[in-house]
Amino acid sequence: MDYRNGYKDTIKARERIRDYVYDTPLIRLDYISEALGTSVYAKMENMQRTNSFKIRGALNKVRKLSPEELEKGVVTASSGNHGKAIATCAKMLGIPAKIVLSDTSTELKRQMIRNLGAEVVITTVEKRFEVAKEISEKEGMTFIHPFDDLDVSEGQGTIAVEILNKMDHLKMIVPIGGGGLISGIAMYTKGVTRWAEVIGVEPENVARFTASLKEGRPIDVERGETLADGLLSVKPGNHVFPIVRDLVDHVVTCQDKYIKKALDLLYNKEKLIVEPSSAIGLGAILEGKIKYDDRDKLVLIITGGNVEASSIEKIINS
């Protein structure tokens, strides 16, 4: 596949969704920067509409649907944030939506989706896509994959547009689950600059990209326990895998104990409420998995903030 012009589709996606999403802040994390002896920034998608980056890809996809498709509604499978994004889009447009959530999703995320008017269906992580596709076939609803859809990836890639409009010569550190976010970011970044690295970080206990890149194709891994509840996909997306393989500079893993340390720093020192999945990039830095020097600019993608402060405190103090 030729990705050289993929950035042009991301620019079109930005025009398509820009009136509906926020250009989120890009801030310097002063305490963490001083502690690490380099410049660390955070792209604050926890301050995005729906408190997650997922609204970008969801909107780009939904706004491409035909009137006939919109009338029948949409269905998706999600660990929470993508489901909330799809439910938000459906409420905006007044269309039906069903969200198939994994049994690992938090009650907070489930209730937020119900409050938006969407129907919630609970199943296992492994069966969520199967259940969503069955609903799609039975009811004629459009299935919107949370990560293995290039329209969704293009929407997520608009994060990189906003970052690179402000700075270049940087290392973008991206939490990686199924690959929708990092594929969109990499496709835009590598299309417009030679001076930025894209680094993916996944949980050590669900290292589906590390295993798949070694194998040369998307493979399933066993789902282990991890604090990063938004990064539980056991297999990379078939459509996004080759983009990650060809364009992402490095994929590394992070242990839970470093996610916990990162969450502590973000919460107690930088005063940020972020999901554990968002802390994994900083965790990998603390673990020594990402090389840097004092001239570097490390940009953490803070993917979401759909978590209660009490839950963060419980993790930190456990």
From TrEMBL:
**Superkingdom of origin:** Bacteria
| TM region positions | none
Name the coenzymes or cofactors required: pyridoxal 5'-phosphate
Q: What keywords tag this UniProt record? A: Lyase, Pyridoxal phosphate
Positions of the Tryptophan synthase beta chain-like PALP domain: 18-304
Q: Which InterPro entries match?
A: Ser/Thr_Dehydratase, Ser/Thr_deHydtase_PyrdxlP-BS, TrpB-like_PALP, TrpB-like_PALP_sf
Name recorded for this polypeptide: Threonine/serine dehydratase
Species name: Peptoniphilus grossensis
